[in-house]
Amino acid sequence: MLVGVLLGVSGCGKPVAGTDGNLLDDWQPMAAPKFDVPSVGMCLDSPSKTSFDPAFVRAAPIECERAHTLEVVLVGTVEGSDGQEPGPPAAGSAGFQAAYTACSAAVNDYVGGDWHNGMLGIDVQLPLPGPWRGGLRSYVCSVFALTNVYSRMSFNSGSLKGALAGDAPKAIQCLDVRGTTKSDGWWGDLSELTPVGCTTPHEAEFVGTIQVSGSGTFPADDVLRKWTIDRCYPVVAKFMGLTQAQFDARVDIGLVWEGVSKFQWDAGDRYVRCFALFNPGKKARASIKGLGTKPLPV
């Protein structure tokens, strides 16, 4: 009864002055949602997030001179068919790999060299599902500093722009080793490879990067290990100015690596960092580049 009365009343009488009596044509279309995105060079005071939350970024900017974790290098866009999907690109998808590849190239330009050769990492944040449904297609690419080779990220003061150019303050060179030793006297599990000056006593040195091949699912540990050893050994030998046989004959120097994680694999990143590793307690005081068959400079 009440509904009928109200409907009846709504159709009676004259239009109010200044109106046409038609309520249906007066609604304005809702404006498209707007999202705040960070700008290149902005520093963020927060741990890494796997997805880009606009509210998080708005709350987190900090002056780069103060301690921070992330530094924005690129704000990209998920394009093409990937941008038409109902949700943001998942890890391992073509869309995610495209964003990671673009991020990696942008970071290289920003820091002035291949970031894999530095105490650096990259972070790709894609939109969260909610903002994605609202139309957000931006992703945020950032660079961060490492305290040691095996760590995720560290707080940094100042910008990382140009960190691998010129005197390359963030380049990996010589490293202090922390870990256990086995019964045979060689290293067991390593927990830290921390950068130090090459004139400071050290037990490891960065010799370069290699790339492992392969596609599909993340390989088993033994397969990845073989791929890495097969490719890292020649790099160490060449760095020292040795043939493979000469390097094999040395008992005081081996190798260790910082390998490909499942996240890197899913992102299409196949880079591995290779290091020359010295006998526990044998601390060199200079670089072993071109050392040849001479003894360690302890």
Widest β-sheet, arrangement of strands = 2-5-6-4-1-3
Listing every helix as H and every strand as E from the N terminus to the C terminus, the arrangement reads HEEHEEHEHEEEEHHEHE
Euclidean distance between termini CA atoms: 99 Å
- From the helix content, strand content and strand pairing, which structural class follows? alpha+beta
Low-confidence stretches: 1-12
Shape: elongated
What is the count of helical runs? 7
Residues in β-strands, percent: 15-25%
Roughly what percent helix?
Answer: 10-25%
Major sheet characteristics: 6 strands, mixed
Structural Rg: 28 Å
Find the count of extended strands (DSSP E, 2+ residues). Answer: 11
The overall pLDDT, averaged over residues, is 89
Organism: Dactylosporangium siamense
Pfam families: Septum_form (PF13845)
Protein name: Septum formation-related domain-containing protein
InterPro entries: Septum_form
The gist of it:
This is Septum formation-related domain-containing protein. It comes from Dactylosporangium siamense. The chain is α+β, with helices and mostly antiparallel strands.
Task: Name some characteristics of this structure.
6-stranded mixed beta sheet; Septum formation-related domain-containing protein; Septum_form; 298 residues; alpha+beta; 5-stranded antiparallel beta sheet; single chain; 23% helix
